[in-house]
Amino acid sequence: MAASFSSSSLDPLDLAQTALKRVADIASSLGVQHRRPVCGRLGAELLLAAQYLDTAAGVPAQEERLRLRVTKLLRDLATICCWHRQTSTPSSSGNNNNNDDGHALLDAIVRLPPGSLLYRTALGEIGKGLLRITSQTAEAEKAIFHIQRFTKRDGTHKQQRRREAADNEFPAKRSTPAEYPNHINMLAYNALREHMCCSCHCDGEHLTRLLLRPPPLQNTAHNGHVQFDMLFSARAWKGAGSGHWQDVQLLVPRAKRSKKRARILSLESNDDIQPLPSPPEPLSVRVDHGQFCKLISSETRSRVCLTVHDGKLHKTGFDHLRQIVQHAPGISLANLLRIHHLSARMKVTLAYILAQSVWQYYDSDWMKTAWTSETIQFIEECAGEQGGIFAFKPYLSVRFGDEEDPLAGERSTIDGEIHHYPRVRALGTMLVEIGIGSPLPMNYSARTISSSVAAAVNEHLLQAIQHSKNERLWRDCDYPDYLAAVSSCLHPCIFGSATSMPAVGGEGEEPFIHGLKRRRDILYDKVVFPLEELLQRTRWMDQLTSISPLETPTESVPAHGVVAEQLPSPAKDADDAGAAPPAQTDPESKRKARRWLLQMRRLNHELAAAQAKPISPAARVRIAVLDTGCDDNAAFFLHSDHGSRLQEWKDWVDESEQWQDQHGHGTHLVSLIMQIAPDALMYVARVARSPDELLGASDNVAKVLYLLGPRVEPDTAD
Hints:
Elements: H1 12-33, H2 37-56, H3 60-81, H4 96-111, H5 117-134, H6 137-150, H7 158-169, H8 182-193, E1 208-211, E2 225-233, E3 245-253, H9 260-269, E4 285-286, H10 292-296, E5 303-309, E6 312-319, E7 331-332, H11 333-339, H12 344-361, E8 376-378, E9 395-397, H13 422-436, H14 453-469, H15 471-474, H16 480-490, H17 492-496, H18 510-537, H19 570-576, H20 587-610, E10 622-627, H21 635-638, H22 640-643, E11 646-651, H23 665-676, E12 681-686, H24 698-711, E13 716-717
Parallel strand pairs: 3-5, 10-12, 10-13, 11-12
Antiparallel strand pairs: 1-2, 1-9, 2-3, 4-6, 5-6, 7-8, 8-9
Helix pairs in contact: 1-2, 1-3, 1-4, 1-5, 2-6, 2-14, 3-4, 3-6, 4-5, 12-13, 12-18, 13-14, 13-16, 14-16, 16-18, 19-23
GO biological process, one term: proteolysis
Protein name: DUF7580 domain-containing protein
GO molecular function, one term: serine-type endopeptidase activity
């Protein structure tokens, strides 16, 4: 097996990328199997290196340099894979024979069929090398360090290169929607924080929920003010009931207070005149300390209207309730995904709202609380027939205080972390959970895990990356734009290119501000904008707030964490249609068929909801079914919506004018097609008595196609 990559006909970058991914999979599996976190970390670094190749190879300025460095990377990888045969570090040249063996192993897992003996042998040898090196923690850390170096931009002018690469990769930020200045977010947060010290003379604190609204509702203005919709629990939370939810509207002035007029007056009068405060709105009353608890505890069944003047909270009156919700604790996004099924439209809409909100609040104290599938909440509405839980109305569970969640900072400096931007990382994890329809299993606690916090964070990141690459989990949400947004969040190099670099001639806080602004721009370009484009192309953007509430769950959650849906059986409709009993099939096949049929029904429902007007009969799809016939007296066709879509019949076997089906196969097929295409018109031709005769019915099929061609011109013939 002394093969070499140098003789490969494949592109070296493609070859390296494939080898890295496969060795990463082996390392990740061994890390779980042997409970060895460092092995999982090594797998994560290898996977990130593969993703870095995929991302950077598309940038011409970087591709040539990558080709020069990829040989060194493959040599290091080969050394790691053969570690059980040698003791040299990846940085050294090592034994040439062992290096050749390592290249041969990599060549085998890239080129050979997965089921072949040589392929399995190569996997076993690589596994031995990985277990050997990860049993020596110091050597494993050196190997990880060498892999990490590959994704770093090196050279004598490192900062200049980093800036140029970032400019090439992220040119000009796309035009963003109208946004209000960040000081508005800070004014709202600070004004409320002053009143969060509960005066109810009991333990606990009032629960706070901030409604995350999609644009343009996010920027709703009232006479130059920005609106925040919130819910507060009437009683302090002590683990029991929280009383009712109080609907609160908070308005914050869009413009900052101007001091220009005050300065002019001071010059004219030559007196020490202070800047004039902006006058509060008429009938507003300042909310003093200790009064806020009483205000939100009142049983008035009205909306409390507040505003911020000069940084202080004022009550401006009451209004009709806008957030009419059940007076019960909400449900977290994690639990929502466990017990409910979200349609593709719901998933994309929710993902967009969360991404847009993270971008809007990115540099504010609203992010002191970690945004995760546990802190994103949903509260059931009870507005008559329009009640229920709506996917487009997520709330953030806010914890006011001076202390920031250590895992919620804008940039982390924890030694050993792979991804240093917790807010982006957490958003990527939520997008994965929404996309696959299930929360990621949490098999550890960052505070109680025996290893370091960095190991726990890296393990969770690797878990999210692995789930994002598992096509089997994505089912009805495998949109390229969505997956690109997920990849951008989870890839540390994307945001790592926008580190806190000083602007030209910058000093003090300018490096931090420059880097933060750059990362926020990247967040919009790489995450928010792709989701926005996806909504535009699917025509869902104009109907973000017209999505129906979630259906009542009908099945419990399986232990492995991926939601199994209780799907209606297509066999029921088939039996009603008079079909013959289906042949015995395995449960897995039935489950997949039911899931697929339900996905088709949901897709048709969403497409129908997006139609501006009903489809005219002339524009309907027409389908010709050439089979064993159709029994129009079956129960399925007694429904007027079904029977009216049976257009024409022709019997080429017995020349009967009556609709008939002696076997049932054709009836089943027609009913199934009508369920999948609910607006299609059906043209049925009986060309055989049973499915066994269909292979010999070519003459009848030819006659049907000849007849239907000029007359009906069906869109589809089966």
